[in-house]
Amino acid sequence: MIPCNASPTTPQDPSCFDVSIGSQEVGGMKIKFFADIVPKMAKNFRQFCTGEFRKGLVPTGYKGSTFHRVIMDFTIQHGNSVNGGGTRVASVGGGAFAGENFKLRHSAPDLLRGPSTNGSQIFTTCSKCHWLDGKHVQFGKTHRPLVMREIEKISRGPNNKPKGLLVQGGEV
Fold this sequence. Notes:
Keywords: Isomerase, Rotamase. Belongs to the cyclophilin-type PPIase family. There is one protein chain. The chain is of the alpha+beta class. The chain has a single domain (15-169), classed as Cyclophilin (Beta Barrel). Helices cover 12% and strands 27% of the residues. It is built from 2 helices and 10 strands. Strands 5-6-8-7-9-2-1-10 form an 8-stranded antiparallel sheet. Strands 3-4 form a two-stranded antiparallel sheet. The two termini are 18 Å apart. 42% of the residues are buried.
């Protein structure tokens, strides 16, 4: 296992999830944000990673959350810190917000993007996904592709929900 590195080079770069499948630690999902191109999206995601976003006095973030959908060769969906199932939207500014721009293309695997209603839920591409260009805002890239491939291979239940996949941390 390669753990996350807790020493960022800049405040927005990098972030990391430590991922486990059941009790087996898989490794760190290291993320670089494109904060110079989509600063609002990058800030929103980073604050959910660190837990510095608070709902009332309670830190709200990805730590202890699950990945709620994995589709081989397409996407890994995660990051819904509200109810864990991908059906509620929350952001550090309250509810959903519009995407900043669509400058970045989905031209490679391991890219992070937000749905059309941006909040805490994110998707990571597992392959090139050009059909998403102009529809979803790309805001980062993972730099540990082997961790992503392990997540893709996990056993899944109904609706492609992975079994036993958990985010152990979300530290910058």
